[in-house]
Amino acid sequence: MKYRKKPVVVDATQWFKNGDHPLDYSEDRTGFENDEFRTWSGEEAKALAWEGGVVRYYRSPNQPGDRQCQHCEHTLDHHGWIETLEGGHIVCPGDWIITGVAGEHYPCKPDIFERTYERATNQSIISQVRDEGYRAGYAQASMLTHDDAYIKGFDDATRQADGLAFTGLLCGIALATFIWGLWAAVFPSNC
Ligand SMILES: [Zn+2]
Asked: The pTM is what?
C-alpha cells in the first residue's frame, strides 16, 4: 500500500543561535541567588541571554567545543541540543525546529525541510479547513436531525422546569400559610 502524508499545518522556526526559538523563554526559571531561592520570569531570562528552554546548549564532556561538526562547517560550541520524543538530538545552525501536532519539537535539516514543507499562507490554511469541513459536512448533515431533537428536548425541559418552579411556588405559599396557622394556634396572640 502507498500512503500520502495528511496536510497538517505545523509551526517551524529556523535556529541559528541560542535564544532563536520563540518558546525558549516561555517559562519561568527558578534557582538560587545569594543563597536565596527565587524565580526569574521568561522575559528576565531572555534579557540575561540565558540558555534557551527548547534548544539548549550543546555540551558534551567527551566532545571538545572547538571540534568541527560532522554535519556542517561550524564547531560544536555553536550547536544546540533538543529533547525530542525519541531522545536528545544535536541541532546544527540553520536546522529547522518543527513543533509537531502533539506540541513536541524535533529538528529537521534545511534541505529536507525545503522538500517537505511549504509556507502556509492564510489562503492555504483556509482551503485546508474548507476541505476538512467539506468532508465533515456529510457527517454533520446526518447529525442535523439529532440537533433538532436536542433543541426540542431542551425547550421541553425548560417548559417542564418552569412548570415545576410554579408548582414549587404554590406549595411554598401553602406551607408557609399552614405553619403560620399552626404558630398562631399554639401561641395565640392576645392582641
Ligand atoms: Zn553541525
From this structure: 0.63
